[in-house]
Amino acid sequence: MLSYDELTPPERELWNAFPEGRQVDLRPGEADGDPPVAGGQWGPERTVRASVIAALLLGANSGEAGAVARLRLTGARVTGPLDLAGAQIGHALWVAGCWFDERIDLYGASTQSISIVGSRVPGLEAGTSRIEGSLDLRSSLVESTTPSRYHGSVTALSLINARVSGAVILNGARINAPGGWAVGAGGLALEGGFFCRGGLVTRGEVRLLGAQLPGGLFMKGARLESPGPRGVALALDSAVASTLDFSQGFTANGTVRLRGARISDNVTFEGAVLNGPPDGHGPALVGMLMQAVDFDFLLARPPSGSVDLRGAQVSYLHEGEHSWPEVVELDGFVYGSIKVADAGETGERREAVGPRGSVAHRIAWIRRGRGYSPQPYEQLASWYRTVGHDDDARRVLLAKQRHRRSTLHPAARAWGHLLDATVGYGYRPWLAGVWLLTLTLLGALVFGTHTPTPVKPGEGAPFAPLVYTLDLLIPIGGLGQRTNWYWTDGGVQGLAYALIAFGWVLTTAVIAGVTRALQKS
Question: What sign has the CA pseudo-torsion 31, 35, 38, 39?
């Protein structure tokens, strides 16, 4: 138990100010010329023991009537461990421009708002804590190279399974845990927003698996570095949030994982840079099974790694020329609408339909996946039909059949080529008419320059080259020409046999192709 006589002058000043919530500023002269990066060299006149801070927060000097007791300290060097694990803390902690020699431990504690602004902290442990208010680490340096004694991983800021009734504010902070977790907040339940704007820089994984973020996650302009072996910059697997904002200069040098995340409003990467893992191997974005209303993927430049959206569901997809890398996994990706930004000054979004060239662009988008999968084609065709572009939908489905053909055995591929050339797999039935017209003109021309021999002289209708050609091409029924005439010229007779064969092939292809199209329509 500390006694007042054991306190140093700066500690006594803090002790006396605490009941009234007055600020104690130990900085000499101008505050701007006194950054906390040199706090390890500050002398006794600016030193406060962590045990004194802990004693005050735990009620060692009770408040006065008419005043709110709180700890407000600026420009101090805090020595020794600030160990408040499991404590019931009834007072707010507000420090600014301070240097902490050792890690702050709030594991399992219940506390009021905590504000550590513009300070240096060698790790903050707040796992399973209950914070009735906000956690504010604006412009602070939080770094750690030692494993947590609670979960064994190197973690700079730990909020695992914590409950925060206000906001978490990391604007402008630098949080470092190379090879470990810069932020470990799996299972975090947050009632306010999670703010990481204003130039936040992290080294190590930002881990928010299963976090509850009803106030949203805002990382506009943040920079996430992942130098570790896993190559994951941000993990939001199975998180639930209202909004995810990774816009306007957000940079991730490592994988961004949104696997199974559920976002009730929008996810935006507008103007972001996704570089993927530093070694160049691995995805830039994993959004498997993600659910969102609005998915804005208008990046500043194409991702360096692959994009995986398998099984994701969004209502609105916003994309542009810089959205997609060389490999895009789309199997099971469902969207209600595709929008692009206008090139003009307004930057308004419009439905992404128009010139036929856009269809080829989107088919190439699907072909960037590994292997063949029918669902991305079916999804794109369904969207084209929804917006009234049935011709474009048929082009997409034809591209699907051509892609599928490349996966078949040789005989099936040959049949596929035939269906494609004759009727376009049923999506271009007019091709059969072109073939029929061409063969009819060819037959009429050849047969009209030769004289056939009647089967029964003097009987039957006169020879008509055009009708004779149609009689050969139409395999069902008869026009009374084919059975009444034959050829002594072997070449002409060979053409007749060929037209009969073409007639059967065309008929079979038309029936097969149209049936396939009707089944898929």
Answer: positive
**Cα(23)–Cα(72) distance, integer angstroms:** 5
Task: Please give, one letter per residue, the 3-state secondary structure of 131-159.
Answer: EEEEEECCCCEEECCCECCCCCCEEEEEC
Residue 88: DSSP 8-state: B
Lookup result for tokens 């006149």? 45
Most confident of 35-44, 189-198, 362-371: 189-198
Which residue, among 93, 119, 117, has the nearest Cα to 35 in the 3D structure?
Answer: 119
Going by C-beta distance under 8 Å and a sequence separation of 6 or more, which residues neighbour residue 184? 127, 148, 151, 153, 155, 157, 158, 159, 160, 207
Contact yes or no for 519/426 (Cβ under 8 A): no
Residues near 444 by Cβ (< 8 Å), separated by ≥ 6? 465, 466, 469
What does the domain layout of the chain look like in residue ranges?
A: 70-354, 355-407, 417-520
Neighbours of 327 (CB within 10 A): 15
Residue 362's φ and ψ, nearest 5 degrees, are -75, -30
Confidence band, pLDDT 50/70/90 cuts, at residue 85: very high
The chain-wide mean pLDDT, for the chain, equals 87
Whether residue 40 has pLDDT greater than 50: yes
Using CA atoms, how far apart are residues 155 and 148, in angstroms rounded to an integer?
6
Q: In this predicted model, what pLDDT tens digit does every residue of 355-365 receive, in sequence order?
A: 544 888 899 99
Token duo for residue 467: 């009708």
User: What amino acid occupies position 364?
Assistant: A
Residues 136, 169 contacting (CB under 8 angstroms): yes
Nearest CA to 150 out of 191, 181, 121 is that of 181
Determine how β-strand 453-454 pairs with β-strand 485-486.
antiparallel
Distance CA(503)–CA(499), nearest Å, equals 6
What is the band of 517 on the pLDDT scale with cuts at 50, 70, 90? low
Residue 384 has pLDDT above 50, yes or no: yes
Candidates 111, 131, 251, 127; CA nearest to 181 is 127
Closest CA to 517 of 395, 367, 366: 395
Number of helical H runs and strand E runs in the chain:
9, 40
Rounded to two decimals, the pTM is 0.81
**Per-residue tokens: 376:** 């991305």
- Sign (positive or negative) of CA dihedral 314, 320, 322, 326: positive
Q: What is the C-alpha to C-alpha distance for residues 203 and 252, in angstroms, rounded to an integer?
A: 10
Q: Rounded to whole angstroms, how far apart are CA atoms 459 and 484?
A: 8
Contacts of 137 (CB under 8 A, 6+ apart): 116, 117, 121, 124, 157, 169, 170, 173, 175
Strand partners, 223: 201, 251
